[in-house]
Amino acid sequence: MKTPSPSIFRPDGGVDQSALKEHKALIEEIDRRKILRGAVSLGALTMLTGCNVTHTDAVQSVLKRISQFNDKVQELLFRPNHLAPTFSESQVVKPPRFNAYYDIEDIAPVNVASWKLELAGKIKDKRSWTAQQIYALPEQEWIVRHVCVEGWDYIGQWSGVNLREFLERIGADLTAKYVSFKCADDYYGSIDMATALHPQTILATKYAKEPITDPFGFPLRLRTATKLGFKNPKWITEIEVTNEYRGGYWEDRGFNWFSGI
Amino acid sequence: MTDITINSTDRHPRRLHPLALRIMHWINALAMIILIGSGWEIYNDEVIFGWLHFPHWMTIGGGPEGALQWHFAAMWLLMINGLCYLAYGLATGRFRRKLFPIWPRELIATVRDALRFKLAHDDITHYNPVQKLLYVGVILIIVVQVLSGLAVWKPVQFSELASLFYSFQGSRLVHFIGMALIVGFLVVHVALALLVPKTIGAMLTGGPEVDDGTDTRRELRRWP
After folding, report:
1. Are A141 and A261 in contact (CB under 8 A)?
2. Is residue B215 classed as helix, strand or coil in its secondary structure?
3. Nearest by CB to A63, which of B4, B73, B155?
4. Which residues of chain B neighbour A21 with C-beta distances below 8 Å?
5. Residue A166: exposed, middle, or buried by beta-carbon count in 10 A (0-12, 13-18, 19+)?
6. What tens digit of pLDDT does each residue of A103-143 get?
7. Closest CA to B129 of B147, B112, B115, B110
8. CB A145 within 8 A of CB A94
9. I want to staple B162 with a disulfide (CB 3.0 to 4.6 A). Which of A46, B109, B155, B179 is the partner?
């Protein structure tokens, strides 16, 4: 027990502590009730998470910062040379499953005659590419799992030019942070350079050995085995190599940017 | 000046639930509520069972993107807190003292007593075998839940772990079943706590003092 500080309101002989001692149980009881009441209020507060607490700006900004922290964690977890599991041709789902920010009836097919792949940013040879030129590049094929952020998955068989090989061919700065994509349907997205250089990341032109059909990104789409589906832009019209963070269509609407699997 | 002292303030009595344990319990409760509520919203985006959708009012996040943000934030809270809890339980010997041994004979006797409404609740400092089994069970389920969650999150980076759950949908199903078991535990746990309210008080204030070899400091000293 601390010695009480001198006070004119306190008797010279000190406070009679016996009263406190006698009613110790009662005092503790009161204290407990307060704690219990506080805890119940806290419990009630958590019940409100669905409507009020979760939508304040402060909470949103904390969640956003944690999502950015999770980007960093996923960058560390990423194994550059670890291959995603591959599957046999008999497991391939045909046709692949469609998903976009609109319905399949609303897709606007790309006119391949006028289509061009533009290059921008930290790239030495920025000449644009026609579909013919792209389709003439050496191909590789991967039969890998496509995982959607929604929770579904399927096995797909994709072929096209390896993105690392393509970036090397055009003299891209492979030490840049991001590879960013623009698409014919105003979709856009960006990935980290490590994922761009992964052996199973390709610019896909074919599905199950046939040219990709319109709903799935004809004439050119990204296909990486180490990211969620929405990180694989379709109908690509521009590739930019950059150190600027470009976000993405879904990422700018609250989905995690790295979204590695 | 006075030299009168109150004994109890000098003695630092050991409570049934030490402060560190109480803090970890309530952090875990908060993390669990967020993970379950946001998990339901994520599940709704691609249901496993066509007949099961979780009503929007009982989910957290307001949509899949918000729910994912909550889920992957509370994940850290659960994992870090859970690791502290496991380390604490092992290092202080609390697991060994409170949760073991569980004898099948006593377990059956307790179930029989419970069915006859003859279960004693006077002493909350000792868990009966059914409680022990439930607590050990839910701890193991949460460990598996973290593993299946990591397999859903990173089926490629953790492909070795993910292969234990057969496929991506296998991991999702195990993660769903784990949630269902944890919710089942929660229902029983909260219902029984409400039936014997002093257990809730004990988890808030520490509960009765215990001297029967439950002094964690003594246990720590025995640790090499």
Report:
1. no
2. coil
3. B73
4. 6
5. buried
6. 999 999 999 999 999 999 999 999 999 999 999 999 999 99
7. B110
8. no
9. B155
